[in-house]
Automatic annotation (TrEMBL):
<keyword id="KW-0413">Isomerase</keyword>
<dbReference type="Pfam" id="PF02350">
    <property type="entry name" value="Epimerase_2"/>
</dbReference>
<dbReference type="InterPro" id="IPR029767">
    <property type="entry name" value="WecB-like"/>
</dbReference>
<dbReference type="GO" id="GO:0008761">
    <property type="term" value="F:UDP-N-acetylglucosamine 2-epimerase activity"/>
</dbReference>
<feature type="domain" description="UDP-N-acetylglucosamine 2-epimerase">
    <location>
        <begin position="25"/>
        <end position="363"/>
    </location>
</feature>
<comment type="similarity">
    <text>Belongs to the UDP-N-acetylglucosamine 2-epimerase family.</text>
</comment>
<protein>
    <recommendedName>
        <fullName>UDP-N-acetylglucosamine 2-epimerase (non-hydrolyzing)</fullName>
        <ecNumber>5.1.3.14</ecNumber>
    </recommendedName>
</protein>
<dbReference type="InterPro" id="IPR003331">
    <property type="entry name" value="UDP_GlcNAc_Epimerase_2_dom"/>
</dbReference>
Length: 367
């Protein structure tokens, strides 16, 4: 069996790396980068010892979403004609995932969708991810749902329930795979490599499209207020390379002593920061899930999340994008060490670390 695994961005690389590892012994796997964020995707794959087999041309300039999707679809179409895979595997909700799914669908190649069924039900938030994942659900042959709720979302939309597999989220497998074999001193060495300051850490990340513009300025004001309120804490912010986001952070947070702006972390470095931090403040999807492995709290800077499981389990607080709410939700955790300590006993709602094995087993015997 030949499986074409399409990877456009860092989170897809992270969440598909364990699927590639699970498929590789038994299938001919072609790992292809789609050109969306090749540098970040290749970097994340390297953390798992994976080198892409096929690097499609990087998307240059600042294309519109339609141009981005159209050009990736056209190039992926040619790649699929050349490779003739039996399956195309896509993950999540990026334009890459949608472009690869669409290209495969038009060539009548079945699509397996990993992390299927996440929904806010609001096409404007997250944008364009909610639309991308809903469209993928219409054309996929296998739907690998990360949670029971995601599986139920798909069935309620009319997806054939025999094509929905509750696999768990592969991010849990990714964390375990990236940690495997690393020794205590390897992790300690990362403090120096990352120039991570001593003292308690807060890991901050923010890059969603709907959080740009005035909202990002508001978020920066919340970060400044938190830095002043918690002078002993170090707020570490690896910046997404998106220029609109980077520049704002660099201007708005310049000169704040306990805010540390950093270039994007590698995956292993991010896991180290997760291990060391007291709290994560983010609009990221993956970080909302990874905190559950580390039993750390996360304050989510979004109005809605497609991951209510984290809130129900007690890891996540939804702060919206209002600075007062952000400051108060973060304070609710940082001022209450016992509340944080209680997370140690909470089960991970995102899976048991065997999602990739389930996905590989299903694909390898299916038509
Ligand atoms: C709407 C939504 O939620 N969509 C998500 C979106 O991804 P996201 O929001 O999770 O994206 P990011 O925040 O960019 O990445 C996060 C990953 O990167 C790691 N990381 C972070 C900073 C750094 O400096 N170095 C790193 O290594 C970090 O630990 C984590 O694993 O697309 C995915 C793909 O389809 C979907 O799965 C997913 O639903």
């Amino acid at each position: 069996m030949k499986v074409f695994v399409a990877i456009g961005t860092r989170p897809e690389a992270i969440k598909l790396a364990p699927v590639v590892a699970a498929l590789r012994p038994k299938a001919d796997v072609v790992v292809a980068t789609t050109g969306q964020h090749p540098r970040l995707a290749v970097g994340a794959l390297a953390d798992f010892g994976i080198v892409p087999d096929l690097a499609l041309p990087p998307i240059e300039g600042r294309p519109s979403l339609a141009q981005l999707t159209a050009s990736m679809t056209a190039v992926l179409d040619l790649a699929l004609v050349g490779q003739k895979p039996d399956w195309v595997v896509v993950q999540g909700d990026t334009n890459s995932a949608f472009a690869a799914g669409l290209a495969a669908y038009y060539r009548s190649i079945p699509v397996a969708h990993v992390e299927a069924g996440l929904r806010t039900g609001n096409l404007a938030m997250p944008f364009p991810e909610e639309g991308n994942r809903q469209m993928l659900a219409r054309i996929a042959r296998w739907h690998f749902a990360p949670t029971v709720r995601a599986a139920a979302n798909l069935v309620s939309e009319g997806v054939d329930r025999t094509r929905v597999v509750m696999s768990g989220n592969t991010v849990v497998d990714a964390v375990a795979l990236a940690r495997a074999g690393r020794r205590e001193e390897d992790w300690k060495a990362l403090d120096a490599a990352l120039a991570l300051p001593d003292g308690p850490l807060v890991l901050v990340s923010c890059h969603r499209r709907e959080n740009r513009g005035q909202t990002l300025l508001d978020i920066c004001s919340a970060i400044r207020r938190l830095a002043a309120r918690y002078p002993l804490h170090r707020l570490v912010l690896p910046m997404h390379p998106e220029p609109d986001v980077r520049t704002v952070f660099q201007v708005e947070l310049a000169g704040v002593d306990n805010v540390f702006l950093r270039e994007p972390f590698g995956y292993v470095e991010t896991l180290h920061a997760l291990d060391r931090c007291d709290l994560v403040l983010t609009d990221s999807g993956g970080l909302q899930e990874e905190v559950a492995t580390y039993r750390k709290p996360v304050v989510v800077m979004r109005d809605q999340t497609e991951r209510p499981e984290g809130i129900e389990a007690g890891f996540a607080s939804l702060a919206g994008r209002d600075p007062d709410r952000i400051v108060s939700e973060v304070s609710g955790w940082l001022d209450d060490p016992q509340r944080r300590a209680r997370l140690a006993g909470v089960a991970n709602p995102y899976g048991d670390g065997s999602a990739s094995r389930r996905i590989a087993e299903t694909l390898l015997v299916s038509d």
